[in-house]
Amino acid sequence: MCCNFMSRSGTSTVLAAVLLLAAATAGADSGWYRQDAAIMGTAIHVEVYHEDAALAQRAIAVVLDEMHHIDRVMSPFRPDSELSRVNREAALGPVPVSPELARLIERALQVSELTTGAFDITFASIGYLYDYRDGKRPDAQTVQQALPAIDYHHVHVDQAAATVAFASRGVRIDLGGIAKGYAVEQSALLLRGMGIRHAMISAGGDTRVIGDRHGRPWLVGIRHPRDEHGILTRMPVQDEAVSTSGDYERFFDEDGVRYHHIIDPATGDSARSALSVTILGPDTTMTDALSTSLFVLGPQRGIALIDRLPEYEAVVVDARGGLHYSSGLAPHQP
Ligand code: AMP
Ligand code: MG
After folding, report:
1. 25 alpha carbon to ligand 2 midpoint, in Å?
2. Can you give the pLDDT at residue 214?
3. Is pTM beyond 0.90 here?
C-alpha cells in the first residue's frame, strides 16, 4: 500500500476523499519535494517547498516522525499505546497518560458538547464490534446492551494530574475521528517552525495547506461519493484545513444497507443521513472532528451548526446525493 518515494516531478495529488489539484505548469515544480507513506493506518502525503533541498527533506522527515509518534500514543490497534492502556484500565481508576493525550481527549469532549453528542469518542464501546473488512457487525441485542456505555460523560480527564478515568465498565474510546487531523495540525506547526511557507500535508481525508502553490491557490476538489474519479465541485484554498468524511472509506453492504465506520452514538448503528461531508477552516483538529460530527448530524442540523461557527464552512452530500453548502460558501455553489 505504501509507495514511499521522494520526487521532484509534478503530478496532481489524489487523496482518498479530497482531491487537491496541483496547478501543474512546466517548471513550476522546482523546489517542491513530495513523499507518500502509510502511517496511522492511512495514506500520508506531504509536499513541501523550499529552495534548500536538504531542509525540505528534513521537514518531510519531521512530519513523518510526528505521525509515527501520534500513532504510537493513540493507536487502538497497538496493545502498547497509551490509548489501549486507558481502554484496559480506566474503568478501574485514573490512568496516568501524557499531557498531550489528556489534552486531545479533553478537546474531543469539548466537541461532544458543541455537537450535542454527535461526536463521541465512546462510540468505540460498540464500534469495536464492527469488522468492515470481514463484513461483521453486532446483532441488535448486543447493540442495545452496550448502548449505555456510549456517552462521553463517562470519560473524566484530569488535566493537572494528566489522568483519564471511565465512570463505567464497558466504556471504550477511539480517537479515529480527530487524531489524524491533530497529527496534520501538529505537523503544520512543526513545518512553520522550520521556516516552511508553502506546503501540503494530508492524512487520509484530513489535509492542511500552508501558503499557496506558486502564486496560485491550491484547488480542493470534492470527490463524488459514489464515483471515485468524479468531482462534484472545486474550491480554491490557501492557508486552510480541509477534512472529508465519507461512507465509502470503510464499509460493507448487506441487503442493500451500508454499514460503515461512522457511528451514530444515539443508535450504535452507522449514520445514514449523509454520503460525505467536507469541512474547511483554520484548524485541522477541528475540521476533522467536525466532518465526523456533521456526518452524524446530517445536512440540516449540521449546516445550522457550522453557520454558528464563523471560521468554518461545510459542504454536505445528503443521502440522496444533494449538495448543501454553509452560508459562507454560497459564492462557490455551481
Ligand atoms: P473521519 O473519517 O474523520 O470521519 O473519522 C471516522 C472515524 O471516526 C471512524 O473510523 C471512527 O474511528 C471514528 N468515529 C466513528 N463514529 C464516531 C463518532 N460518532 N464520534 C467520534 N468519532 C467517531
Ligand atoms: Mg473526521
Report:
1. 32
2. 79
3. yes
